[in-house]
Amino acid sequence: MFPVRQPWLCKALGCYDCCIRCLGAVPYPSLVATLLCYAGMALFCGCGHEALTNTAVLVETYFARNVQDFAIMASFIKYFQYVIYGLASFFFLFGILLLAEGFYATSAVKQTFGEFRSTHCGRCLSLTFIVVTYILAFIWLIVFAFTAIPVYFLFNMEQTCHTVNILAETTPSINQHGWICMDARQYGLLPWNAMPGKACGMTLASICKTSEFYITYDLYIATFAGAGITLLALFLYMVATTYNYAVLRFLGRKGVR
């Protein structure tokens, strides 16, 4: 909450009126965006980290017999988990900075505290936040698209297992559903020379019945949702920072320095 620079004002207005004036100075779009950003990053980082760990177990157990075939993916998972730690720290600090910029650049501050001034430094700072937020939103849009890939893979795997189970119940011949496979190599999870690289028939159906599969599936869905919530928060940040910069430009044209 902002410090009250006119103590006599609170005494004259009373505690209730003073609190109303302080609440009016809160940049609610930036506050909502910050809460959404933290919630989304908590889902993305926490669930994404566990989902990658479970993915390593599933692929190594059922799709790759040779350790060398899985080495590249294992290294990618390891490095991306470190990237997740860095993303969590970065967005935590970035959210605090944007929330502070929203507090000190919003027009509500000027209306509540008459000593607020629009300086060239303040306008440049707001413009910097706008540029950084737009770049982050574009990058995160790509990340959001990539998080849909494992969800799509596991969804197809679940539907394939469902087809196998239906054929197993309706046809007595094992060969009828033995040709239905899920190939991890088609999704870039393993190199093309990896063996076996795919699971077929009842072997595939047995994988889908494991708790590891459903846990991994749910974790990737939560990761996808977290990336979407973070993207929504960035869009709200874009609106808030653009509005704050427009207000500062307007104050500069009015001669408030």
The total beta strand count reads 2
The stretches of 5 or more residues where confidence is low (pLDDT under 50) are 1-6, 112-116
Structural class of the helices, strands and pairings? mainly alpha
- List SSEs in N-to-C order: HHHHHHHEEHH
Describe the overall structure.
- The protein is mostly helical.
- It contains nine helices and two strands.
- Strands 1-2 form a two-stranded antiparallel sheet.
- Helix 3 (28-62) packs antiparallel against helix 9.
- The longest helix has 51 residues, at 120-170.
- Mean pLDDT is 77; it is low at 1-6 and 112-116.
What attributes does this structure have?
single chain, 257 residues, mainly alpha, two-stranded antiparallel ribbon, elongated, disordered N terminus
Sequence-ordered SSE layout with sheet pairings:
Blueprint: H1 7-13, H2 15-24, H3 28-62, H4 67-105, H5 107-112, H6 120-170, H7 175-178, E1 181-183, E2 198-200, H8 201-208, H9 211-253
Antiparallel strand pairs: 1-2
Short description:
The chain has 257 residues and is mainly alpha-helical. The protein is built from nine helices and two strands; from the N terminus they run H-H-H-H-H-H-H-E-E-H-H.
